[in-house]
Amino acid sequence: MSQLIKIYPENPNEKEIDRVVKILREGGLVIYPTDTVYGLGCDITNSKALEKIAKIKGVKLEKANFSFICYDLSNISDYVKQIDTATFKILKKALPGPYTFILPGNNDLPKDFKKKKTVGIRVPDNNIAREIVKKLGNPIVSTSIYDEDAILEYTTDPELIYEKWQNTVDLVIDGGYGNNEASTVIDLSGSEPEIVREGKGSIDIF
Fold it and tell me: Pfam families attached here (predicted)?
């Protein structure tokens, strides 16, 4: 049976963050808040957990487009090829924030992502998500949790999320109401920035 724990985004409780990290290290799946919608995540280095998320999403792991949740820009260089000054300026301006950036992956990608030419990088403006990643010591792989409800694409109430997902994941974090708008996705892997999906992040900064 999974757990529902309350963590306050303004000042995340270290003990609770440790609890989340322990579950992630053991290959558990966690639903957590971001600066957009709630996400379903696992440790990027845990193949079994990655397979579980791919199965939940109904996709093959090697074809899945998951985002990497990073603590800050210094994390990004672990998995992304050397970026030019113009790209770095865009990232610095937008992050932390409600954006997913598609960037060219490098040779250090975890084994399950070795075949990927590009990766989606997120640094959400949410202390809970970032503290988890910081404590874990590497990114978490993440995907938004959709709702089958035709009117509401994303569930925003953590208690309703828990009700629906308690038999699928190991832990749901209640970090307050989520947003019902996903991140803006920008492809920076080509010569010009390309807007793939317009979401919560304003495109005016590009």
Answer: Sua5_yciO_yrdC
In whole angstroms, how large is the CA radius of gyration of the chain?
A: 16
Considering only CA atoms, which of 200, 195, 197 is closest in space to residue 178? Answer: 200
Position 151 confidence tier, pLDDT thresholds 50, 70, 90: low
Please write the tens of the pLDDT for every residue from 77-93: 889 999 999 999 999 99
What three-state secondary structure class fits 51?
helix
pLDDT at 150 over 70: no
Q: How far apart are CA 28 and CA 49, in angstroms?
A: 6
Domains of the chain: 3-197 (3.90.870.10)
CB-facing half-sphere around the CA of 193: CA atoms within 13 A? 19
